[in-house]
């Protein structure tokens, strides 16, 4: 991502080039925009936003290294994270699930992730067992009575054959 891909004014966003040459515009939190403004200050629009330790554009391998390194460091203070395998795609997946839990429409999440098909995005809805349990807990079934079968028992039916 280059400095020119950032729109850091009143409605901050980033223009992202994704897999399959897909381009999408993603909104940014104001705190993210503030950090990016400091990072991009005094830089040419054609320069990469994120640079590695050699002042070269950060590659996907560099991002992978940073994510795994910081996940390992965090695992020292958050024991549940220490046993998890955290990769860049984990961050993407977790963000999508958090958006879903926050009530964001699945089609909006699809566009944010850059998925062409809604079927691809439904994977995120399917895996969230906690949301399913919460939805089930919201349904009041206390007024329902067990249904009494009006037909003779199955064994009696089979014997009559």
Description of the molecule:
The protein is mainly α and 161 residues long. 49% of the residues lie in helices and 7% in strands. It contains eight helices and three strands, in the order E-E-E-H-H-H-H-H-H-H-H. A three-stranded antiparallel β-sheet has the order 1-2-3, with no helix packed on it. A hairpin with a 5-residue loop joins strand 1 (6-7) and strand 2. Helix 5 (106-113) crosses helix 6 (118-127). The chain is elongated. The termini are far apart.
Any key phrases for this structure?
161 residues; mainly alpha; three-stranded antiparallel sheet
In short:
The protein is mainly α and about 160 residues long. The protein has 8 helices and 3 strands, in the order βββαααααααα.
């Amino acid at each position: 991502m280059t400095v020119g891909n950032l729109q850091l004014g009143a409605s901050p966003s980033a223009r992202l080039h994704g897999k399959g040459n897909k381009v999408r515009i993603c909104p940014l939190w104001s705190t993210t925009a503030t950090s990016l403004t400091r990072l991009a200050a005094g830089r040419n629009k054609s320069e990469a936003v994120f640079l590695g330790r050699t002042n070269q554009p950060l590659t996907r391998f560099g991002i992978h290294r940073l994510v795994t390194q910081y996940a390992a460091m965090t695992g020292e203070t958050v024991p549940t994270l220490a046993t998890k395998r955290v990769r860049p795609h984990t961050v993407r997946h977790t963000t999508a699930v958090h958006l879903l839990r926050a009530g964001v429409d699945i089609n909006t999440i699809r566009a944010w992730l850059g998925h062409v098909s809604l079927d691809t995005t439904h994977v995120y809805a399917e895996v969230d067992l906690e949301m399913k349990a919460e939805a089930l807990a919201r349904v009041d079934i206390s007024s329902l009575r067990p249904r009494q079968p009006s037909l003779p028992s199955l064994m009696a039916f089979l014997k009559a054959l």
